[in-house]
Amino acid sequence: MGMNNTPAGERVHIGFFGRRNAGKSSLLNAVTGQELAVVSEIRGTTTDPVYKAMELLPLGPVMLIDTPGFDDEGTLGEQRVKKTKQVLDKTDIAVLAVDAVEGMRACDEELVSLFKEREIPFVTACTKADLTDGCPMKPDQEQSRADMGGGWPEKPDENKIANVMYVSAVTGAGVHELKEKLAAMLPDKGERHLVADLVKPLDVVVLVVPIDAAAPRGRLILPQQQTIRDLLETGAIPVTVRETELKEALTRLSEKPALVITDSQAFEEVAAIVPEDIPLTSFSILMARYKGFLKIAAEGVRAIDSLKDGDRVLIAEGCTHHRQCDDIGTVKIPRFLKKYTGKDIIIETSSGTGFPEDLAPYALVIHCGGCMLNEREVLRRMRFAKAQGVPVTNYGIAIARMKGILARSVAPVAEID
Q1: Phi/psi of residue 29, each to 5°?
Q2: FRET label pair with 373: which of 254, 259, 286, 384, CA 20 to 30 Å apart?
Q3: With a threshold of 0.85, does the pTM exceed it?
Q4: Are strands 122-127 and 93-99 parallel, antiparallel or unpaired?
Q5: Are 291 and 369 in contact (CB under 8 A)?
Q6: From residue 210, how far is each of 19, 194, 265, 270 by CA, in Å?
Q7: Residues 250-283: b if buried by 16+ CB within 10 A, e if exposed
Q8: What span, in angstroms and rounded, lies between the C-alpha atoms of 372 and 241?
């Protein structure tokens, strides 16, 4: 998959943080070489997080995020600060913009604490370096010097790659060095695959893709696209069919498929067609493994069998989309749940960034595969639920459990994990 087509969930998320008028937006524009963010001398010009997916050398495909000032005030200001904190949940690398003339402030120190608390690697960009020969620190900021890796250098050093850097959006000084530093901070996730490590070159893999009223018109959903691409890159032979043609397709193949991957909503029909000696799993289960929460989801699914009348279940999606008549999250899974448990369960839903902070009211969270979320945000949601003692699973594993094929559906990936 080329950089231009890299999904948002696969991009490195770089957030620009700092107080109002610290130069965050100007710095972001300087880093990208584009006028992506509105710049003004008026404090608080950026009122909501601004996201921009782009290809930024030497970083590659990234998602850049400009945030409101962390020192915003008033009722609206508090809401903006809250949104900025939410951005931290998906930030892989943070850039803290500190006004070189004014130096560190309490809100900057709070951001540093939040970065450390969430284990977010960060670099401090001392902005507006063209206005000063040094970045003055006040006497009460000696602790900040230590926190920032030794404090500000007495004079700008544009060639120094360190946690604290001098930059100027006006002259461009230090901007190239900042980009190089960010590239060096990119997380090393090693060689990861959605499915390629489960098969060998020339293996036939059958992908079952239902085309119904709930399917996106004219395209495949992202996990299906990513799976096909991953199989092609490893030299396997993907064969894509609808569940209505699956039985005939299997009879026409000259050899037994190495794996069958189905959309979770067709699990029951597909499992009845595919012989037991052919490994079977779903796109959703593959995505849970890829995003790093397969084990959590497999453990959490047990809670389905303990649901009682009046229990609340949250069905959460990482993206927002137009709901179709038989939507899997709002229609099919609730229907499966009530039929399987026989209980009067209260179903609530969330989508996009609307994942609730307080999960205590819920007996179970069923999350989508998270294809539109980056790994940091997905795992944060999983840990968030676990910290509150709320079991969490995902679409594919939940459906497999309710259809009585969980052991079979996780067997192909459990052997790898």
Answers
A1: -65, -40
A2: 259
A3: no
A4: parallel
A5: yes
A6: 49, 20, 8, 10
A7: beeeeeebbbbbbbbbbbbbbbebbeeeebbbbb
A8: 24
